Amino acid sequence: MTETATTVDALDVLIVGAGISGIGAAHYLTTQLPGTSFAILEGRDRMGGTWNLFKYPGIRSDSDLHTFGFAFKPWTDKQSIADASRILDYLQEAIGEDGIGDKIRYQHKVISANWSSAECRWTVDVERGDTGETTQIKARWLFSGAGYYNYDEGYTPEFEGRDRFTGQVIHPQHWPEDLDYAGKKVVVIGSGATAVTLLPAMAEKADHVTMLQRTPSYILPLPKHDPVANIGRAVLGDERGYALARWKNILQQRVLFEACQRFPKTARRVIRGVNKKLLPEGFDVDTHFNPPYNPWDQRLCAVPDGDLFRTIRQGKASVVTDRIKTFTEKGILLESGQELEADIIVTATGLNLQLFGGVKLNLDGEPIAINESIVYRGFMLSGIPNFALAIGYTNSSWTLKVGLLCEHFVRLLAYMDARGYPAVRPIADSTMETRPLLDFGAGYVQRSMDWLPRQGVSEPWSMSMSYYKDRKSFAMDVADPNLEFTKQLPAADVQEKADAVSA
């Protein structure tokens, strides 16, 4: 690989990731701060983030697109729970409508970033996949739209005897596009959103699909087509119909979450009743659909039009709740002594967390210990200047929070520009009580607690998961006493401006 260290740009904002968060940030910069220079760096050769990366059968949203979509762009497709190709089309339309296509630099992978207090700028090292070169970009602000997953490698636990299995073992994150599973026995290990998506999708061609789970998840059917949204659009038009559906679904999500949190026993009974009604008569609901935790201690899985339950009723798929003892030549031997025969085993065992796409952050040449920082309003980190990140909700649609924080981010930039502030950083009290960043029981979160940032116990240092609460919080004045603004430009910039005036 040829390595160079030439600086190719000096920008106001550098956005990392051309997924839904990065595209959203670009929209608000374009429409609300049109004089701001920015670029989006995308490590892969296509936009879309998650929706471009995953290729497994049936991949779809697990939130309705009227809330997962952008506030500024109506979702006009009839599908409410939508497949990946429709979401990619929607994102491509958003890029075209804002004219930001030429701002995206594909095959540009950010490796590291160093903040210079003397310059009040980030210097970002970028590896170009198309040329093999390493270049540098300077930027006043760094905005991470890369989410919190490791997109290079999924999580697969160690399975005893895996090498003995004579069939194929596949992780959904690395799905072979030419995989032929027609007429074959498939075992999907897992019980989360990916597993419940794969089961009905693969059952259309496979001989039989078995979902093998150690612990059940809460699963609820949602309509694939939202009649209120579709009728609303037909009567009120795209924008007002979309707004109606969006607010209806925001309220619906919040009511469901609050009900589950406040009345967990009742919520458990209701969900069990729905599951029992949709499953075959005599199905062992209490073994296979009865999680040991309360609803919304982990994310609920949505299945459009109850497709998972329908596939089970039709006998094309089954659920086994047990622990794996070992892989065998023909499949999987369970601790109960049962052996599941398989031609293909899919390890839908989750993802690994990785903030900022694995970018190494430095402050004046010294590595930044992210786990020692505290999140500020869910989009900045204590002690780190001019750095923003987009982390959406875990209990409702990701994009709802991303939209709010992007708008606040742009307001913060406008405030700083109007007053000549080149830099800002949140300052946290060293005696502040803290707790984990994500108060969520999912395995991928629990495995990563030690290196994630922390959150406080009250605003603005808490990681709110309430859209209504965040609307009020992000609407507040950006001039917060918890923020430290640099009050004058670095000496080099002052001299540069003086030279420009004298010339």
Automatic annotation (TrEMBL):
An MF annotation (GO) of this entry: flavin adenine dinucleotide binding
Signal sequence annotation: none
Keywords: FAD, Flavoprotein, Monooxygenase, NADP, Oxidoreductase
Cofactor: FAD
Similarity field: Belongs to the FAD-binding monooxygenase family.
Protein name according to UniProt: NAD(P)/FAD-dependent oxidoreductase
